[in-house]
Amino acid sequence: MNSDIKNLEPKAVWKNFADLNAVPRPSKKEERVIQFMVDFGKNLNLETMVDNVGNVIIRKSASSGMENRKTVVMQSHLDMVHQKNSDTVFDFDTEGIKMFIDGDWVKADGTTLGADNGLGVAAIMGVLESTDIAHPAIEALFTIDEETGMTGAMGLEGGILKGDILLNLDTEEDDEIGMGCAGGVDVTATRTYNEEATPENTTAFEISVTGLNGGHSGMDIIKGLGNANKIMNRLLFDGFTNFGLRVSEINGGSLRNAIPRESFSTVVIDTVSKEPFLFEIHELINNIKAEFLALEPNLSIELKLIETPKTVMDLGVQEGLIKSVYTALNGVYRMSPDIEGLVETSNNIARIIVKDGAIKIGCLTRSSSETNKWDLANSLRAAFELAGFNVEFSGSYPGWLPNVNSEILKTVTKLYEDLHNEKPNVAACHAGLECGILGQNYPKMDMVSFGPNIKGAHSPDERAQISSTQKFWKFLLEILKNTPVKN
Question: Which residues, given as ranges, of the chain have pLDDT below 70?
């Protein structure tokens, strides 16, 4: 399948994307892809280095006649989100992504595709190995660990890069030019509980919530998609409040930056309450499905009789867990008062694990406003601390403040208009681009972000549009050819 991808146009991008996707590259396990990029740069006889945290920098001199242009930093991240369907057998640590062509789209077989941000990496590789593309002096910056904390961008020291302009190739709409983004912080709530012997005369069920779209917890949060953790909690709350349901285990969601698609719980109910419980829970399931019918047509909520577990949570902690998750906000908290249609602040209840006497709840709070980011984070903290949880903030990173007077923004906007006879969507996005972090150590660097159409990022439905990638590549080459002259 992957050999077909290499023959797509532009070959300079798709060939490198296929080679990149053959290398396992989960966040925080980037050793193999770092070596892959180092070998790539050295095989081209280009100056190649790895910094203290694992970012790869490859430098290429300006092409003939472009020596008087400002140096451009081309930047993308090496890691990818690893998500797969529950029935897909795949090992992200050892296998390359299996891709196929479906009309105008490239998809993966039951897993994330890695177009976020692999297409950006591949495009930079295409420029680095080219012999006929006009370009200024280039510093190619390949960062690590963007998806689970942006530690690569955070760890990049000031002074390493000499470029004046940064082109971030990590936007997912081909008519969009990014000029700002949200910051974020991880909110993690933990506590222990006593395991009690399961009461006698109980019936056990596994409750499963599956079939949700999932998606990017920043870009897709405005869509109002279903969150498997919140849906599961509605079921548990109803069963607990009305029938004394007891929880044994919960396993919901996966990655902090992916809207949860699945959640599973093991529960018990008094056998005498079994029939009325099933009647009411199925009424609730039908109501939830009706609420989400337009957005989540494949939502599946099922109960299956199972062997009774040996232990359940103690009632006090269980009540605090269910009520705090019900209280905690998930979704949009505030829309931007300055940019129409832009989410300013949001939260994703990404992960809930209850097992073996321990609870862990992971949230990712995003905002383009530092004050509102912390306002929402403290709101979540209060909800969980009232239920006896310990709450930790970690991985905080800043947003990227828009600069409407940016020289490269004006240049790129005009080039887009000249190429397509229409205005691009110049906007900030509700996602965590690395530009804000890089700008801390490189405050004078002029930045924009753009990329091809990528749909369903951070989910197994991720797909990249072939025709849009052609548009993106042509646009990138025009930008490189028309970068501003040095002052």
Answer: 1-2
